[in-house]
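Ticket #4471: structure output looks truncated?

Reporter: J.K.
Steps to reproduce: submitted the chain below (126 residues) through the standard prediction queue, then opened the result file.
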Amino acid sequence: MLVFLTIQSISNGVFFGKVVWGSVKEFITYGLIQTLLHFALVIIVMCIAVLIRNNVISMLIAVCLCMNITAIFYGFLDKILSKFGVEDFHVMEYTVSGRMTLLDMDVTAKAADKRYLPPIAFLAGT
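Returned output as attached by the reporter:
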């Protein structure tokens, strides 16, 4: 992550002529949440690889998770649940890949708490 930050800073300086730093506290909070969510995603992919015992299929599933193809599947599940009378329930809010997508750059304390819960629950269960 530090290598990426360094390369991005140098690139911004070269191509745009300036580097603007925001709040360090917000950046650290965002970085920690993203690191935790990505670690949980790695654990999920490793579990899939062990269960399926096929690295090609598990990597295909990992790519689908990273490309957010699961959002289509989650939308399908939401429609089915709404037909059964379940209102205001979104599957994406309760999954690790959904939390990675929904995380804003401006992280508040309440949003950070909501983003930490799925990966911590998943990691505690493994």
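Triage note (M.O.): checked the attachment and the full token line is present. The chain has a mean pLDDT of 77.
Status: closed, working as intended.
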